[in-house]
Design goal:
Strand content: 5-15%
Number of helices: 22
Oligomer: single chain
Number of strands: 21
Structural class: alpha+beta
Helix content: 40-55%
Radius of gyration: 33 Å
Mean pLDDT: 84
Shape: globular
Distance between the termini: 62 Å
Low-confidence stretches: 474-484, 832-872
Largest sheet: 6 strands, antiparallel
């Protein structure tokens, strides 16, 4: 059997087995007398489902990795120039079908864990969960990645010998890490959905919470890590010195994260105070449905079009999915969206309704309620903004998406309040908090924050002066500069950064004390430290980055930017024989820049220079004759980053480098002088609408060439571009497409062994007058390199904050997983308000009076008391 047959058969078996899983579990619920039998059958069918999905993925990976071009997916997503083994594997999930299959694989594997740990909830949860795999298998049958190339393109004569290759921006190590990570997070969202739906069906509004809590934390942590990976990938690849652009595809991962993180906070309130039951069930359903909305948004083609200004709605969107696959995606949206909402509304009156605000506004109950509310509002804003292009396409209006400044304005007050709440919550107790004790606990962090804000004030002043001195207003778009003056910016930036510092400090103080006693109980506080650090990093790095546009001209010396001296040292690319002056046609081409840091011109004690090289990349990934003829070849520009503790030096090409060449304008049978060289133009060679060239000779009277007559002959030319059918191709303006073919002169080399070059720039019809450019020793081509140099302060706080938050969430997940295991073992819910719930933050209880024997009585442990009371 061929890999395609194996894969397509496995997908079909996966669909059939997943349907059998659903039927078997339903029968296990319907017929309690045969529950054990039907459950065994369901488990066997689910094992077959998982094995089938994994087999299908393995077959596609084999096709892509081994470049089996008889399959259309391999032609579209890999190529002979893709030599890195990891990139060849990553090409498996670079397309629509491959990413669906990756999603199905993670769903199947996570489902194995859910099935084994659900116990008495297994038959309730697994039918809902397995339906996701059934839908995905159905989509993969209709939108098959195993389609043969000749079947997909019946008009072509045969199978190609090469594919289109992996998009250059995807040829990055993050491509091997980010999609699997983010899709693991997406797949895990089906677990809270399934538990929430089962809880609504069986009216088990309390029992589902401890079981789903670890999964909600897992989703939050992994999606947060995936967002971090995507941001860092964009930062070090795209060259715009940013990590978050409010792109609709980026937001499609962000709003499910907001929903599931709100769910995690609500589950803590339900776990501890038995509140927010309705809210948690709603967010449990919403998080997965929002992921489906984002999936539809990125794959429906709504984001693949351009706005009226010519800019793409998203640089990350897939092309439009096939019609049958689109119908199934819409069916998923309706089934899980309308079905989940209808189920929630149906059970709304039967759900317990308890006050969520505590006995006082100064309580942890109110802080949790407010945090869930803020995340819900943020989720609604981002979702509505991101889906605007979809709504406009339905109304047949020009596509458009909100500008980043819209999100900046909307999210600023939400983040400001969030930072304050996070800063206060470590010192709050459940139910109510003594105001005096709260003030005492907050006093020291507050004073330290004031000192931090005072120092930040002077730093902000210096940064604003530096920005005004170097930045063009166009460079400052999409930041706070666009919608507030320096005074307002100063106040808000200092306020937000100071509150972020207070949040990090307060939670760090409590995390340290809790970690010493109960390490697993410190997870939430560590996560909040990360959020505080993240807020500081985001506001400082985005608002007070400095960008200068400079141009380096070869032979004119270095330039100085932000105290750094930058000089051009050349290109690393090896030109092709037909492109002797174009190093960018080497995929490994880099622009070598010698950087001297402030004070770096001194020699250190060991005699070493402090200068270093930075090498931003500039290359043409896949040359296209048509694009070259139109003067706009598809080039890639990747930045170079020098990391320091407090800032990054970020250098990218502002546009494509240019080369200045000396040239002569000469008629046939004439001679002209170019520096020490004599240029002879013998005659023109023309083939109408095919080729035109000029036969020339070059001599150097001072240093005769080692050739007959001491003359170097050459024929630079210009070729007309023709299509596959032989017809002449024309530009949008109607002019013939032309490609200049320079000719290397190996007999004329410079001190570094580089040959001279002659290029025919134009040839007049009739007179045969030629304009010819040269690069020769003593008259070399001179590069002009436009650079965008950015001083990025505080950027490492962004990465550190995210990683701290993820680590804290994972630590909390381990704790809640152990609690869920204890619930399963005892069959009882944990107490609603256990002693010492978060370590040390509760009000201290009064001391127990001594017993008549003079010894203090010891209260019986809460869990032991529950077990004793539950015995018959």
């Amino acid at each position: 059997m061929t890999p395609g047959t194996i894969g397509s058969t496995a997908v079909f078996v996966g669909l059939l087995a997943s349907v059998l899983v659903i039927i078997a579990y339903v029968l296990a619920l319907w017929r309690p007398s045969g529950e054990a039998l039907w459950r065994s059958i369901a488990r066997a069918c689910y094992a077959l489902t998982s094995a089938s999905v994994l087999t299908a993925f393995g077959a596609l990976a084999y096709i892509v990795y081994h470049r089996l071009y008889q399959y259309d997916y391999a032609v579209q997503h890999t190529g002979n120039d893709l030599h890195n083994h990891w990139f060849r594997l990553a090409a498996t999930w670079s397309g629509q079908e491959g990413s669906f299959l990756l999603w199905a694989c993670w769903t199947a594997l996570i489902g194995c864990v859910v099935m084994l740990r659900a116990r008495r909830y297994e038959a309730r949860v697994m039918p809902i969960y397995t339906s996701v795999i059934a839908f995905l298998c159905a989509i993969l049958i209709k939108q098959s990645p195993y389609t043969l190339f000749l079947k997909a393109h019946p008009g072509l004569p045969g199978v190609p010998s090469d594919g289109f290759g992996l998009t250059p921006s995807l040829q990055n190590y993050w491509m091997t890490l980010h999609p699997p990570t983010i899709f693991f997070g997406f797949a895990s969202l089906a677990v809270p959905f399934s538990y929430a739906a089962a809880a609504l069906i069986w009216r088990d509004y309390e029992g589902w919470a401890p079981r789903v809590f670890p999964y909600a934390l897992l989703s939050s942590a992994v999606l947060g890590l995936g967002l971090f990976m995507g941001g860092y990938w964009a930062y070090e690849t795209l060259g715009w010195h940013g990590f978050w652009a409010w792109d609709p595809v980026e937001n499609a991962s962000f709003f499910p994260w907001l929903a599931v993180t709100a769910l995690a906070h609500g589950l803590l309130a339900q776990r501890t105070r038995r509140t927010m039951v309705r809210t948690n069930l709603f967010f449990g359903l919403l998080a997965f449905w929002l992921f489906l909305v984002g999936t539809f948004l990125t794959r429906s083609g709504a984001l693949a079009s351009k706005m009226p200004n010519g800019q793409l709605l998203s640089v990350h969107a897939f092309d439009n999915i096939g019609k049958s696959g689109l119908v199934l995606m819409v069916t998923m949206l309706l089934f899980y969206g309308i079905g989940g909402l209808a189920l929630w509304l149906w059970r709304l009156r039967t759900m317990p309704k308890r006050p969520s605000m505590g006995d006082s506004l100064l309580s942890r109950d109110f802080a949790l309620m407010l945090s869930v509310l803020l995340m819900g509002i943020a989720c609604a804003i981002v979702t509505l903004g991101s889906t605007t292009p979809l709504f406009l396409s339905w109304l047949h209006r020009p596509p458009s998406a909100p500008a980043p400044v819209f999100y900046n304005k909307a999210m600023f007050p939400i983040v400001l309040i969030t930072a304050f709440v996070i800063a206060c919550v470590p010192w709050l107790a459940w139910r109510r908090t003594d105001p005096e004790k709260f003030k005492q606990k907050l006093l020291i962090p507050w004073l330290i924050m004031i000192a931090f804000g005072f120092g930040l004030f002077f730093w902000v002043l210096s940064s604003q002066r530096a920005i005004a001195a170097v930045s063009d207003p166009q460079v400052l778009k999409d930041t706070l500069h666009q919608w507030m003056g320096p005074g307002g910016q100063r106040v808000l930036v200092i306020s937000m950064a100071s509150l972020g510092f207070l949040a990090a400090l307060s939670n760090a103080m409590l995390a340290y004390r809790v970690f010493r006693k109960k390490p697993l109980s410190a997870g939430a506080w560590i996560a909040h430290v990360g959020v505080g650090v993240l807020i500081i990093g985001v506001i400082l790095s985005n608002t007070f980055e400095r960008t200068a546009l400079v141009t380096l001209k070869e032979g004119q010396g270095p330039v100085k930017v932000f105290g750094y001296t930058i000089s051009f040292e050349g290109m690393t690319g090896k030109p092709l024989p037909e492109r002797p002056l174009d190093p960018e046609y080497d995929p490994e081409n880099r622009v070598m820049l010698r950087i001297t840091p402030p004070g770096g011109d001194r020699i250190d004690a060991s005699g070493n220079s402090q200068t270093f090289l930075m090498e931003p990349r500039w290359f043409v990934p896949r040359p296209s004759v048509e694009e070259e003829a139109q003067g706009n070849p598809d080039t890639m520009i990747w930045p170079s980053i020098k990391k320091y503790v407090g800032h990054d030096l970020y250098i990218a090409l502002a546009s494509q480098p240019g080369v200045e060449l000396p040239y002569v304008t000469i008629r046939p049978r004439s001679v002209t002088q170019l520096g020490p060289y004599r240029i002879y133009y013998y005659k023109a060679v023309t083939r109408p609408l095919q080729y035109m060239g000029a036969i020339i000779g070059i001599t150097d009277p001072e240093q005769p060439f080692n050739t007959p007559d001491h003359i170097v002959a050459a024929e630079p030319g210009i070729e007309f571009v023709h299509g596959p059918d032989g017809s002449l191709m024309r530009t949008p303006q109607g002019m013939p497409m032309l490609v200049k073919t320079g000719e290397a002169l190996p007999q004329i080399t410079d001190s570094q062994g580089r040959p001279g070059v002659a290029i025919l720039d134009s040839l007049k019809v009739g007179s045969d007058e030629a304009r010819i450019a040269f690069s020769l020793p003593d008259l070399p081509a001179m590069w002009t390199v436009p650079l965008s140099v950015t001083y990025k302060p505080g950027i490492n706080l962004v990465w550190t904050g995210v990683l701290l938050a993820v680590a804290g969430i994972l630590l909390a997940m381990v704790r809640r997983a152990r609690e869920a295991q204890e619930v399963e073992e005892t069959g009882l819910l944990l107490p609603a308000d256990p002693d010492d719930e978060e370590g040390i933050d509760r009000e201290k209880p009064a001391r127990t009076p001594p017993t008549p024997q003079g010894k203090p009585s010891r209260p019986e442990p809460v869990r032991a008391a529950i077990r004793r009371a539950s015995r018959p």
